[in-house]
Amino acid sequence: xxxxxxxxxxxxxxxxxxxxxxxxxxxxxxxxxxxxxxxxxxxxxxxxxxxxxxxxxxxxxxxxxxxxxxxxxxxxxxxxxxxxxxxxxxxxxxxxxxxxxxxxxxxxxxxxxxxxxxxxxxxxxxxxxxxxxxxxxxxxxxxxxxxxxxxxxxxxxxxxxxxxxxxx
Length: 168
Fold this sequence. Notes:
The protein is of the alpha+beta class. The chain is about 20% helix and about 30% strand. The chain has a five-stranded mixed β-sheet, with helices on one face. A two-stranded antiparallel ribbon has the order 6-9. The longest helix is centred in the first third of the chain and has 17 residues, at about 30-45. The chain is globular, with a radius of gyration of 19 Å. Mean pLDDT is about 80; it is low at about 155-168.
């Protein structure tokens, strides 16, 4: 889906710098795809004539975080509005060109996985969005019935849950 969309952007160069063998991210693939499409669409819209987009992935071992970056050489975001861009219905696009929901949707997706999103933007030079996801899956709540018939909802690290992917 993403590849098809990118091929239609003949005036924009899209390159990737993807690290292989990254740790797994336990997530809904469709949500991550939606976040990436929203970032790519915003990047394209910031470059109406021509420009470059770079998609990067990396792993930060010190903090055990996966990194997804989308950088563009577009118009940039004015510093005066950068603190508002993640708010629902806020848009820098002309009337009728944007809903102001793309970045707030991304923020919701990122937060749902315990992640963080940051922006670095310089007007007339471009913008880089960096998303950090924890490489280790979030803790699992394991429900099981106790002898008294009650449910125990103890939170376990995923490394202690039998049957969890990667555990034996």
